[in-house]
Design brief:
single chain; 573 residues; mainly alpha; two-stranded antiparallel sheet; 22 helices; disordered N terminus
């Protein structure tokens, strides 16, 4: 019953949000009744199409669950469905019935394009929102009504769809294996993402210098694209890894690196975007001072977002511990959800990264608050966030497919797309292999070559990169970024994602590992004292392989002694 309620709440919330965005922000007073009815029918049709896409995706995933296809994956299905439906919408409209766009030529005194334009027609004032430049748009780019209704405000992705995905990633994190490999994960996420950003940005800048495709596409803009496209999203790979029960350390490396990589890429994007906002293109000069300014902005955004995420989670833990709200599970669950989402909004209001904040909120909520929840709330929160994550993720992949045909201002520069595609693989190569070589110099549990090849392959691009690209498409460089990102995401998910299973077999990745047995082994070894002479050399050597880093062990001891007694109810453990 509870699951049905939450499904209804999700669809109602998503439907209302999209409806507010899809409806033109105009004064309907004075419109003819048949025009209002027509607009309402189009809104309903667009919603029906999108919900039908999700239903079709759910049924197809069910088919994939009972009959595993070795060269295809369900995430690609959502995207292909979106591409097909987008093509039908694009080419099925009667072009004679489409009203053409009206140009206004009295804005010569403006020095920049305003975001909102007010216009009075027959005594009624209308408001129009800037959607981008049109001088290079294809013929007929004004689109038809159904196309417009199926194109959403990109802020919906960041305020409605991405938060539950990122929170669930943090909430689902397997902390034992994550912290056992924390040093390697942080190295790949921070240094690797930065390397990828610089490599991609440098190659794109070199391509632009050689071809001169866009004069305003300067080096900071290229770095922005590098940060955007460096956000990996191996959802397809991880889904197959989970089904195959691959080595727990490999799963932790791929999952942990992707989680922190998303956060780092988003913060890098935000830092460079802030620099671009305060430095107009005509006076922009990217020098050493600018680099360290952007670096300081990156550190400030990441640290502030991390702190605010952990702080809100600790406040939630205290509330659930001290108020005895668990006597009313529905109120406890509501408080948990609202406090978690408030974390995202508070970070955005503070001009930090809501995505990073909600990620660390999820990790901290799982570590402290989850232990305070009543059994009903504990099960309900986990299942509901899993549901929200599933629906939001498939919605985004469906919309990525729709955007192939329904985005009106694509810039199909195949040289740019090809260079970007090559650049992300070179950046990934310079990320994984050199850093793995350095890490293996100090690791007891070496990162095997087969694991390195798998991590190289797992650098797929998906929802995060697309969501960053679609947030700003008001200039030709930004439209080129979106088109290139969209192309890379489609190829990554459909083709490379489908090759995951054959690749796993080809590399000889160990599968069928029992996580329960691994967990028991890790707990047994954690009790072994290396200095105890009664323990064998084999036990000591094995313990070192399972041992966490010094920093993690130090924090774990502090956490057990001081923090857990404060934030958790020890009677519930």
């Amino acid at each position: 019953m509870a699951a049905k309620i939450y499904i209804s709440i999700f669809f109602t919330f998503l439907g209302l949000t999209m409806a507010f965005d899809l409806m033109d922000d105009v004064n309907l007073e004075g419109q003819k009744e048949d025009e209002i009815s027509s607009s309402h029918r189009t809104d309903s049709l667009s919603m029906l199409i999108l919900i039908s896409l999700l239903i079709a995706t759910v049924l197809m995933i069910w088919l994939f669950k009972i009959r595993r296809f070795s060269c295809f994956h369900e995430t690609g299905v959502a995207m292909i469905f979106g591409i097909i439906v987008g093509a039908i919408i694009r080419y099925s409209e009667d072009k004679d019935s489409v009203e053409k766009a009206v140009s206004i030529h009295n804005c010569d005194n403006l020095t920049s394009a305003p975001r909102n334009v007010w216009m009075k027609v027959n005594g009624t004032q209308y408001s129009y929102i800037l959607s981008g430049i049109v001088q290079h748009a294809r013929k007929g780019a004004e689109g038809n009504e159904l196309e417009d209704k199926s194109s959403f405000n990109p802020e919906i992705f960041f305020y409605v769809l991405l938060p539950p995905i990122i929170f669930f990633e943090g909430y689902l994190l397997q902390r034992r294996y994550f912290f056992r490999n924390l040093g390697a994960i942080c190295t790949y996420a921070f240094f690797g993402t930065t390397i990828s950003c610089l490599v991609v940005g440098g190659m794109i800048f070199g391509f632009n210098k050689l071809t001169g495709v866009v004069e305003t596409f300067d080096f900071p803009e290229c770095l922005l694209f590098g940060a955007m496209i460096s956000a990996t999203d191996p959802v397809t790979v991880l889904a197959i890894f989970h089904d195959l029960h691959v080595d727990v350390d490999l799963y932790a490396l791929v999952f942990g690196e992707s989680v922190l990589n998303d956060a780092v890429a988003i913060v890098l994007y935000r830092a460079i975007e802030t620099y671009l906002a305060y430095n107009p293109s005509e006076v922009r000069k990217f020098d050493v001072f600018s680099f360290f300014t952007a670096l300081g902005e990156f550190v400030a955004i990441f640290a502030g977002s991390l702190l605010i995420g952990c702080a809100f989670a600790c406040i939630t833990a205290l509330l659930t511990k001290l108020t005895k709200i668990g006597m009313f599970p529905i109120l406890e669950t509501a408080l948990f959800f609202l406090m978690s989402y408030t974390t995202f909004l508070a970070a955005e209001v503070a001009s930090w990264s809501g995505i990073v904040a909600v990620l660390f909120c999820g990790i901290t909520q799982r570590h402290y608050t989850h232990k305070n929840l009543s059994p009903e709330s504990s099960i309900r929160t986990l299942q509901t966030f899993e549901l929200l994550n599933f629906l939001a993720e498939n919605f985004i992949f469906s919309y990525i497919g729709l955007s192939v045909f329904l985005f009106n201002y694509h810039q199909w520069n195949f040289g740019f797309i090809g260079t970007a595609f090559i650049a992300i693989h070179i950046g990934r190569f310079l990320n994984i292999y050199p850093l793995s070589l350095l890490l293996n110099c100090g690791r007891t549990r070496k990162i095997a070559c087969s694991h390195q090849h798998t991590m190289m392959f797992a650098g797929l691009r998906g929802a995060i990169a697309f969501s960053l690209a679609i947030r700003n498409t008001v200039s030709m460089p930004r439209q080129m970024m979106l088109t290139a990102t969209l192309s890379i995401v489609v190829i990554s998910v459909i083709f490379f994602g489908g090759l995951t299973l054959p690749m796993t077999k080809c590399l000889g990745i160990e599968t069928g590992i029992d996580e329960t047995e691994e967990e028991f082994k890790a707990k047994r070894l954690s009790l072994i004292d290396i200095n105890d002479p009664s323990n064998t050399d084999e036990d000591r050597a094995e313990k070192k392989k399972f041992e966490k880093s010094w920093l993690v062990r130090t924090f774990s001891a502090f956490d057990t002694k001081y923090l857990k007694p404060i934030f958790t109810d020890i009677h519930n453990e």
